């Protein structure tokens, strides 16, 4: 389903980036950071910059010939970005929402760990396994 999953901190620094093809990781970093501009625009356009976040799912952020980029922002301004292949026409909007909800739930588990330092990148094995399952299509 997904070819890349990224978790971006509130200061727009990447906390976690995972790709199916490790050789394309730099390309996906670039695409994810380009999508962050659209995230900021959508947040300010919907009044979310003032703290009024009701809808966490931002929808399609960017579409290229090869990939579609979707976004999600938590109440604490942590951004999740999922990149899918454009050729995957069977992927519906509600399935992408479910992927983000699952990712948000697993992220909350990571942050609740008393040994996790919020300023460090995510290195949880359970989080990585869940992301790998999402990319393999096992929601």
TrEMBL record:
Family: Belongs to the TRAPP small subunits family. Sedlin subfamily.
A Pfam family hit: Sedlin_N
Gene3D superfamilies xrefs: 3.30.450.70
Location(s) in or outside the cell: Cytoplasm, Perinuclear region
Superkingdom, taxonomy of origin: Eukaryota
SUPFAM superfamilies in UniProt: SNARE-like (SSF64356)
Species this chain originates from: Cloeon dipterum
Alphabetical keyword list: ER-Golgi transport, Transport
Primary residence: cytoplasm
PANTHER family xrefs: TRAFFICKING PROTEIN PARTICLE COMPLEX SUBUNIT 2
GO cellular component: perinuclear region of cytoplasm
GO terms (BP aspect): endoplasmic reticulum to Golgi vesicle-mediated transport
Protein name: Trafficking protein particle complex subunit 2-like protein
Matches recorded under InterPro entries: Longin-like_dom_sf, Sedlin, TRAPPC2L
